[in-house]
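Q&A log
Question type: sequence-to-structure
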Amino acid sequence: MKIRMNPARFCLGIIFALCCINAVQGAEHSGHGSVDQTSVALSVNAPIASLLLKGVVVIPFKAEEVKIAPLYGEAAAQVLPRLGHLHVTLDSAAWHWVHADDGPIVLQGLSSGKHQLTLELADAAHRILASRTVEFIVP
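Response status: OK
Response body:
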């Protein structure tokens, strides 16, 4: 079965990803610090199997006590309910991108084989609140 991709959506996705990478590129991962937040939780599901068989990785997640939104900085970190976003790292790369909505993580075009995706729930000031890793195999 051949999967057709909308070129306009693909280009927009690439532009969005590059903008996100550029926005976080200067931040040192280890410099974000960590905040003890016992009520904060991040649950990550395995990729949706039927789509994974077609080479599309869709990973649903849920953040507890944090509203996922594209707002950043110390002022946004003081807002209640707490605002945050995800730092997403594929295959232990030295860089990550920001996912700032509550929709699932969607990846396409990965090589066949085993992959690892790490999701870090961060507050608006990029302090890591919770982290989960999911492994999957692209056929």
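Response note: Confidence is low (pLDDT under 50) at residues 17-36.
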